[in-house]
Amino acid sequence: MKLKGQRVLMFVAHIYEDMELLYPYYRLIEEGAEVVVAGPQAGVVYTGKNGYPFKSTAAIVDQQSKDFDLLVIAGGFAPDKLRRDPKVLELTREMHEAGKIVAHICHGGWIPISAGIMKGFTCTSTPGIKDDLVNAGATWIDKEVVVDRNQISARKPDDLPAFCRAIIAQAAK
Fold first, then answer.
1. What is the pLDDT of residues 72-118, one digit of tens each?
2. For residue 15, what is the DSSP state?
3. Calpha distance 20→16 (Å, rounded)
4. What is the distance between the alpha carbons of residues 1 and 89, in angstroms, rounded to a whole number?
5. Given this model, what pLDDT does residue 5 score?
6. Which three-class secondary structure state does DSSP give residue 66?
7. What is the pLDDT of residues 52-61, one digit of tens each?
8. What is the pLDDT of residue 137?
9. CA-CA distance, 136 to 117, in Å (whole number)?
10. What torsion, rounded to 10 degrees, do the Cα atoms 55, 27, 33, 164 define?
11. SS3 category, 26
């Protein structure tokens, strides 16, 4: 129960990467964290890229960064739509500026890019958004997990064990 008493925010929308949402969701709960999965609307079932349904526990618009200890952003194609929501960008930016952990995997890096928080950070992602991260001022490396200050990043579902270990280790400090 390394994360007992901590609150985690995750985002969900249609075409999220199923494993990148579910694996951290259950792993962080297992460590004692309270995990809020916010979508464009509360109580709506969103369908993952591979067809898995997940019902949002809250609406993004109702969330405040001060209420959370860390943010975990799953990949898939949902981040491309979510990054168009000013509230998603505000939450991401505020949590980052407060020094809270912002963890992203695969295409999840699109949200920190649009939030303007990647400049000067070293990270990884799916190779598909490497150029986007570099153009946003990040240094991209091909590694299963990268921890740079308060940011944690990973490339793909195969990296989920290392990604979650890094999140738990950093959050437990």
1. 999 999 999 999 999 999 999 999 999 999 999 999 999 999 999 99
2. T
3. 8
4. 30
5. 97
6. helix
7. 999 999 999 9
8. 98
9. 8
10. -110
11. helix
How confident is the model at residue 78, as a pLDDT? 98
How confident is the model over 5-19, as a mean pLDDT?
98
Question: Could you count the other beta carbons within 10 Å of the beta carbon of residue 88?
Answer: 25
Amino acid residing at 161: P
SS (H, E, C) 106-159: HHHHHHHHHHCCCCCCEECCCHHHHHHHHHCCCEECCCCEEEECCEEEECCHHH
- DSSP assignment, residue 48? P
Give Cα 90 distance to the centre of its chain.
14
Across 9-36, b (16+ Cβ under 10 Å) vs e yields: bbbbbbbbbbbbbbbbbebbeebebebb
Nearest-CA neighbor of 92 among 66, 111, 119, 67? 111
Residue in the block written with tokens 């995990």: 35
CB-based contact 111:77 (threshold 8 Å)? no
Mean pLDDT within 148-167: 98
Residue 20: closest CA among 121, 169, 145? 145
Rounded distance between C-alpha atoms, residue 160 and residue 110, angstroms: 18
**Residue 107 appears among annotated catalytic residues:** yes
Look up the pTM and report it.
0.98
